[in-house]
Description:
The protein has a domain at 22-98: Rhodanese-like domain (Oxidized Rhodanese, domain 1, 3-Layer(aba) Sandwich), CATH 3.40.250. 36% of the residues lie in helices and 16% in strands. The chain is built from five helices and five strands, in the order E-H-E-H-E-H-E-H-E-H. The chain has helices at residues 12-20, 31-36, 47-53, 70-81, 92-98; strands spanning 9-10, 24-27, 43-44, 61-65, 85-89. It starts with 8 loop residues before the first strand and ends in a 16-residue tail after the last helix. The model has no long low-confidence stretch (mean pLDDT 94).
Amino acid sequence: MFQRSKIDEVSPQDAVGLREKGAVLLDVREPDEWADGHAPGAVHVPLAEVETTAARFAGQEVLAVCRSGGRSAKAAETLAQAGAKVRNVAGGMTAWATAGLPVMRDDGAPGAVA
């Protein structure tokens, strides 16, 4: 029987520190969610496109994030299989915003997580 590997989780606060050390924050939400608000400096690849782009993250430290953590956990499995060192951001962008971390839109205006 196939058993999923265990993907480590990090808090939003720990994700900020890891990003400062060079990790990629990969937001896998839908384009409309991204447009409403995302973490500054995040890279956007919707979950439906992760499988076809996962190889570009091989060998990199990646922090996967979505709205609440479910979709990013799926993305993390795919990224790990492609050779990325990946962790899932616990609680997703909802937890990120609740922690008071910055959320912005592409135009630099303050964003929101719905």
